[in-house]
Amino acid sequence: MMQIFMPLNFLGFVYREMKGSMANIEAMFALLRQQPRVRDRDSAPDLKVSKGELRFDQVRFNYTDDRAILRDVSFTLPPRHKLAIVGSSGAGKSTILKLLFRFYDTSGGRILIDDQDISQVSQHSLRACLGIVPQDTVLFNQSIRDNIRYGRPAATDGEVDKAIRMAHLDGFIASLPKGADTLVGERGLKLSGGEKQRVAIARAILKDAPIIVFDEATSSLDSSSERAILDAIRDISRNHSMLVIAHRLSTIVDADAILVLDEGRVVEQGRHEDLLAARGHYAHLWAVQQRHDND
Ligand code: ATP
Q1: Is the minimum distance from the CB of 104 to ligand 1 under 6 angstroms?
Q2: Among 57, 175, 194, 208, whose Cα sits 20 to 30 Å from the Cα of 290?
Q3: Is 277 a pocket residue for ligand 1 (Cβ < 6 Å)?
């Protein structure tokens, strides 16, 4: 899946230019001297989140005039539920995330958080209520602790330690020579894909945003990392609304709802067992993946 945080690798490169802490996407735009495509309307109010309900209401989108990418996509993620989006390559999964983070405005329909249209509120308040676990996490040449603290720069060591435990990173960190103070990155330890993703989970836990997006990596992880990530995601989804862009369907068998996207349309929606019983798109994707795993 296309990275929604495409500037992140570049960000690692320009990071040395930065003196202060950086935790939000506005800083990224400023840093990259890139204008966001959308602008706040004059005196846009801040988003006020009480429950953390996310709703896509007949959302339509096209990048160019000649091709519809999302066609009347509607779904509701109730507070503290886990909703997964699956679909073959090019179905429009990343586009849904880009619209949620308001990298673009919709071409039609609305995206609502707690009944407020996200196009009418300030972007900084929107992004403050969204946490993201991206496919590929950028780590800086600092300690693991400082890398996690990017989730909320003012967090205490105790809060970082708690996030480490909740992200199931404590066992790994205990095995390191200097624990959470071990340096990572070019001059230090190299983390595996699964460990990096758990650092991103710890960051998201620390940020404590009401809605968390988990953009699952396409590459498979070793089974212990995968287990730890699944456990962490399950724990987080008890207290947060969680949107998962899934590639490995085994990740989402316990989701409250699964949305199947095909060529920009929602073609099926339901729980894992119901979708299997329906013998439609999802059942087909599941069978293909089972065969692949067995091979
Ligand atoms: P994958 O799993 O392969 O990442 P996806 O379901 O996330 O796919 P999207 O990345 O949302 O799919 O892309 C949906 C469609 O939009 C694709 O046909 C893609 O080529 C097109 N698309 C994506 N980004 C752009 C863009 N910036 N400009 C024009 N078309 C785009």
Answers
A1: no
A2: 194
A3: no
